[in-house]
């Protein structure tokens, strides 16, 4: 099992215990150290991770790694963050997290921009100018949230 997979396996229950979902674990060289980047998110649905939750889960992750033999060897820098507003939407959970937001989808038929009204099973309901279009997630080649300021 690769280091990243071991760390993911160790951290997932700790992150879940803090009420969040472990999205991704990355290990990258950073000079003489290693950068351990941990991305966390809400388990499902719309909303966001606030700074208090991020602080709490960072502490839990650090404590878990301190006690684990699967922590990165040597010195490492721990970076805990959320996926950010512009992440790619690749899983049904990602689309459910983006409900109510403006999205840009690319399908084999072209680009679709609109508000993600709902996710029912494998089907997205996208509204634009009063019209709702249903698109299967499996037909989406690329998708992301269009950040509105």
UniProtKB/TrEMBL annotation:
Residues 89-148 form the Ribosome maturation factor RimP C-terminal domain. GO terms for cellular component: cytosol. The keyword Cytoplasm applies. Residues 11-85 form the Ribosome maturation factor RimP N-terminal domain. It holds the Pfam family DUF150_C. It is found in: Cytoplasm. CDD domains: YlxS_C (cd01734). It comes from the Bacteria. Required for maturation of 30S ribosomal subunits. This is Ribosome maturation factor RimP. It comes from Flaviflexus ciconiae.
């Amino acid at each position: 099992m690769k280091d990243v997979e071991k760390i993911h396996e160790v951290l997932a229950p700790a992150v879940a215990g803090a009420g969040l979902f472990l999205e991704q674990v990355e290990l990258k060289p950073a000079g003489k150290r290693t950068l351990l980047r941990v991305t966390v998110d809400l388990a499902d649905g719309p909303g966001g991770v606030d700074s208090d939750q991020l602080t709490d889960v960072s502490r839990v992750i650090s404590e878990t790694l301190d006690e684990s033999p699967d922590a990165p060897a040597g010195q490492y820098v721990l970076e805990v963050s959320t996926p950010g507003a512009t992440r790619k939407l690749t899983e049904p959970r990602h689309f459910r997290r983006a409900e109510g937001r403006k999205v840009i989808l690319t399908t084999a038929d072209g680009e679709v921009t609109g508000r993600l009204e709902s996710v029912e099973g494998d089907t997205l309901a996208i509204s634009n100018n009063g019209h709702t279009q249903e698109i299967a997630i499996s037909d989406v080649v690329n998708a992301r949230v269009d950040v509105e300021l």
